[in-house]
Every structure is written in C-alpha cells, then in structure tokens.
Amino acid sequence: MNMSDIFKKSFLNGFEAADINAYTALAAMLLSCVLALYIFTVYRVVTRKTFYSKSFGVSLAGICLITAGIILTIQSSIVVSLGMVGALSIVRFRTAIKDPMDLMFLFWSIAAGIICGVGLAEIALILSVLLTVGILVLDKLPVAKAPLLLVINADDRGCEARVMEIVGQFAKYSAVKSRSMTKTSFDLVVELRTANGAELIGRLLEDDGITAASLMSHDGETTF
Description:
Blueprint: H1 3-13, H2 22-46, H3 54-76, H4 78-88, H5 100-117, H6 121-140, E1 148-154, H7 160-170, E2 173-181, E3 186-193, H8 197-205, E4 210-216
Antiparallel strand pairs: 1-3, 1-4, 2-3
Helix pairs in contact: 2-3, 2-5, 2-6, 3-4, 3-5, 5-6, 7-8
C-alpha cells in the first residue's frame, strides 16, 4: 500500500456514511414540512402591506423540503455528495430578487432545510422563532416618514417663486426636484414635508397661474 492509497483510505474514513433509515428520513422530512409551512405563513403575514407573490411563497416551502432531501442524500455517501455538488453547480438562477426581505426568507428556507436534514430540528425551530420575533419587532419600530411629492402644472412660467413662497408657509422642509418648461406651460416637482396637504393644495390653486396641483406620497427610501 503506497501513500496515495493511505491518503484515499483515511479521507474516505473521515466521511463515513451516516446511519439514515426510512424512519429517520421520514421524521426529518416531516419536520422540514412543518417549518416550510411556518415560513410560508410568516412570509404571507410580513408582506401583507407590500408586493406579495404567492408563487414565491410556495417556492420558499418547496426549497426547504428540497434542501432537506438533498442533505439527507448527501449524508448517505461521499460519492453521491460529490456527484450532487457537481450536478447542482451547473444550475443558474436568473430570477431577480425584488425585495431584500425576500432574500432573507430565501436563506431562511435553505437554512431550515439544511438543519433539519442533518437532524438538528431543535436548532431550526429556535432559529425560526427568533427570526419571527425579530422581524415582527423591527417591523413595528417607528421610522422617518418619506417626504411627499408636490406636482405643479402651470401656464405661467414665472410662478416658481410664488409656489415656493406658499410652500414655505405650510412645509417645514422643501426642495425642488425637477423643472419642466415649454413655451406655454411650466411643470414643477417639489419634495416636501407637511401635515396640511389639503390646505396647501387649496392655497396653491388660488393662484391664477397654476392650473393643477397634486400631492403624492411614495414608498421609496427615506433620508433622515
């Protein structure tokens, strides 16, 4: 026996197949199924105020089960594990993640499947509970409210000074974001913070040069 054979033998002995029977596999898959349904439910509750994709929620549950099955299979043989790694390495996922929260749920689902697959369901349960509590608590924390956008349509190209003077009476903060001008019209977009939006719009429409005024909110990033 040469050094190469000794190395191969010691390497393979360090990765002996785990004793996984049908009952062990069934228990791991059932626990993964319970956690998959739990993750699906939490995702539905957390995203109730934003864009919700049912197909993505179903994918989260499916990924958890698939990952658990892969981990159970990998534990059976090092040869199978190497072959599976090679097969999975050629897979390319091109679906864009629209929300960072979706990425967290994706990793949560994968982690739960891995942990259940190796037989540590208690850790997966603790992880899921702590993540749920953390998400719900952080979601309730108050944050700065995004500023409003005031859109002005006017036929008087010299009305900007009057608009900003009126805005200054009702808003603590204001900043011109864009100007659009033609020979017969003038459009202005102003970012502002105000608690008297209705009064501001009414006051602006009293100006003869302003033909329309709109105040819109948005869900974009907030600057503190």
